[in-house]
């Protein structure tokens, strides 16, 4: 390898490193946004709880003071009524006694004045004087029965009970909440999972109904998430997870979820904390450039956002790969046979690290390939396995799941319609990603990825 080639390889390595660093920056930025969202959620929850406590206790304080004042006024009014009731007969008797006492005192004074008068004058008015000096022949009512001493009973224990009740007023509890618990990267999508975190609490009564319906919304994270207008509903139903596919790779999205129980007349509950997610994985798509041969004849036609490929030109076994190495080691990938054509020996759905060319003809039954043909025969690097899987039919689902055994060996599980075979696949170079591919000889075959 000359210096120019070394420089090219080195620069390509630098570009790949930069790409990985950019993806890491994107993921870290998304995580920071999630932490900030969680912090804001905690602060908002605390602020709302504080307002509830302040408003409740301010209202309770007014009610308690009003109740105390009402009770005090009642007791004072009762005392005044008893006082008035007791004083009324006493006042009447006192007025009568005071009047009679004054009359008798006046009579005494007049008697003393008479004694100082001349006898002739006294005798002249004898009858009138005797009448004035006659003691009052009058009876008075008995002393009225009165309360005399009022007793006010305010038990200290009652006050203590009230104080204790006030000291127990209100409670702060960590109640259950609906939150997004995980965002899982998928090729061209994000799997959003949520859950209701329940905490033991006396607030939960027996027979209570949990959330039965959920609504998931999302928007691009660079929008102002404080506005409800930027969010779009992408799922509404009973499941607690949803695969969001209508997104772009390397773009951060903000998700939120809410729930409700009972029928549709029940209002939706509060939104969860915002959760940001991003996928750096390209979507699973068939390669458009592989659809035509060297003569520019269309061998395959793509539809359904390039997820469905249909063989349209017969008698050609051209391989159709994925647009990129979108399969990540450790995941599962599934193909569905939507339509069938005439079977041929070259019919294969599989995984490859590169094209396999034999006698100038592209095939999926050579080195660096693992696949299963339409008859259920498994091929590993061009070698047929003895164990067979069911043959393809309309609606057949074919799945592959690969895991690393060592640097140059993968353990692959291949299943057709739920019957599975696990095998070891030696490869030339260590890989993290793979192409998926298919090859059919006759027209009419239609396969969808995902």
TrEMBL record:
The keyword Chaperone does not apply. Gene3D superfamilies: Immunoglobulins (2.60.40.10). Keywords: Receptor. The keyword Transferase does not apply. InterPro entries: FN3_dom, FN3_sf, Ig-like_fold. This is Cytokine receptor-like factor 3.
């Amino acid at each position: 390898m000359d210096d120019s080639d070394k420089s090219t390889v080195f620069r390509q390595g630098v570009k790949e490193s930069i790409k990985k660093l950019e993806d890491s920056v994107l993921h870290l930025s998304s995580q920071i946004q999630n932490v900030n969202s969680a912090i804001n959620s905690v602060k908002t929850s605390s602020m709302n709880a504080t307002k509830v406590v302040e408003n409740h206790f301010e209202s309770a304080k007014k009610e308690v003071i009003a109740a105390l004042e009402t009770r005090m006024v009642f007791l004072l009014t009762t005392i005044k009524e008893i006082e008035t009731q007791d004083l009324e007969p006493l006042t009447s008797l006192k007025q009568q006694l005071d009047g009679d006492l004054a009359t008798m005192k006046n009579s005494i004074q007049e008697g003393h004045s008479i004694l100082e008068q001349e006898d002739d004058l006294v005798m002249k008015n004898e009858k009138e004087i005797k009448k004035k000096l006659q003691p009052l022949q009058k009876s008075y009512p008995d002393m009225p029965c009165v309360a005399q001493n009022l007793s006010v009973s305010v038990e200290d224990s009652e006050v203590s009970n009230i104080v204790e009740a006030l000291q127990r007023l209100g409670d702060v509890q960590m109640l259950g909440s609906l939150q997004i618990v995980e965002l899982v990267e998928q090729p061209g999508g994000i799997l959003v999972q949520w859950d209701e975190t329940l905490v033991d609490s006396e607030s939960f009564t027996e027979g209570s109904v949990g959330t039965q319906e959920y609504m998931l919304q999302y928007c691009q994270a660079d929008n102002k998430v404080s506005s409800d207008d930027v969010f779009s509903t992408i799922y509404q139903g009973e499941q607690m997870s949803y695969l969001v596919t209508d997104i772009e790779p390397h773009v951060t999205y903000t998700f939120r979820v809410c729930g409700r129980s009972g029928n549709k007349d029940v209002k939706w509950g509060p939104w969860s904390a915002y959760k940001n997610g991003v996928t750096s994985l390209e979507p699973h798509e068939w390669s458009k450039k592989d659809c035509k041969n060297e003569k520019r004849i269309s061998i395959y036609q793509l539809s359904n956002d390039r997820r469905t490929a249909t063989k349209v030109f017969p008698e050609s076994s051209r391989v159709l790969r994925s647009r990129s190495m979108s399969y990540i080691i450790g995941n599962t990938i599934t193909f569905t046979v939507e339509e069938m054509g005439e079977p041929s020996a070259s019919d294969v759905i599989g995984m490859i690290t590169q094209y396999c060319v034999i006698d100038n003809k592209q095939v999926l039954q050579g080195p660096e390939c693992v696949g299963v043909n339409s008859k259920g025969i498994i091929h590993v690097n061009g070698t047929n396995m003895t164990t067979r899987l069911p043959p393809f039919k309309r609606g057949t689902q074919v799945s592959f799941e690969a895991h690393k055994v060592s640097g140059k060996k993968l353990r692959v599980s291949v299943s057709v319609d739920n019957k599975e075979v696990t095998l070891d696949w030696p490869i030339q170079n260590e890989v993290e990603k793979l192409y998926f591919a298919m090859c059919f000889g006759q027209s009419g075959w239609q396969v969808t990825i995902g």
